[in-house]
Amino acid sequence: MTAGTYPSPEPVEDPEALRADEAAYRDLADAVRELLDLTVRTRVDQPERAAVATEVRALSARLSARAQDGPLGLETTSDGRLRDHGNPMVGMRNPVAPPLTVRQTGEGEAAADPFVLGAAYEGPPGHVHGGIIASVLDQVLGTVPAIVGRPGMTAYLNLTYRRPTPLGQVSGRARVAGTDGWKTTVTGELLDADGQVTVEAEGLFVVPRWARQYLGTPTGDAGDFEAPAEAGPDA
Length: 235
Ligand SMILES: CCCCCCCCCCCC(=O)SCCNC(=O)CCNC(=O)[C@H](O)C(C)(C)COP(=O)(O)OP(=O)(O)OC[C@H]1O[C@@H](n2cnc3c(N)ncnc32)[C@H](O)[C@@H]1OP(=O)(O)O
Description:
This protein is α+β, with helices and mostly antiparallel strands. 29% of the residues lie in helices and 27% in strands.
């Protein structure tokens, strides 16, 4: 396993051109997401479905004219940002992503703004699939260690499904519950459209050994690091 960080194959020196380029990727993902939703819900007749399938295959052939062999990894752009555009929860280029927007809401806290989980995410009739909920909460909780400077892999994610989550608008929130060296414990919740907590989560996020040299020596206080060149005590 590597850090999975690559220079973007499409360096853009002009910030406006970069924004336009990204907007076009986002628009394509939005359009395909709409297609996904309607593929689940359509009731058009069989010949029409067959005709649409032929057209969709033709569109895929156009995109394959120039496509990356493997996944996107974590790209660094020419203006110095990190892009995780393939991420299935937040990725700008991924139509599987609802998508979530996770932002910092306070010190050691993050929240996913209200977003919609529709028919493509159904588990129990009319309700959100439990595995999708786990993915959402993994992302929301996993953002917290990153914002306190200790981005980690999920070591465990414990979920308590308190009540079924209706399809439709949901949101999430999370915060640091404890830190211990390279380990950050995070708690969080998924909320339905009425603001009721439907699922509670606790996760442990660990900075992998291979990544510790990039983060410096951890202390007991979140976000408090020595010089980044210094490797951790057991790196
Ligand atoms: C732009 C950025 C975007 C940032 C936003 C990113 C959000 C992304 C959210 C999605 C995140 C994912 O899905 S991540 C993908 C799913 N997760 C994975 O695939 C992880 C697979 N597991 C691993 O790679 C590894 O087991 C690690 C990294 C978790 C730990 O391995 P390691 O690095 O070798 O370290 P190791 O010595 O084993 O463990 C370190 C310490 O953690 C403890 N520890 C390890 N695992 C556990 C565990 N399950 N339960 C309790 N404790 C544990 C150990 O006892 C030890 O404690 P002590 O002795 O030091 O006290």
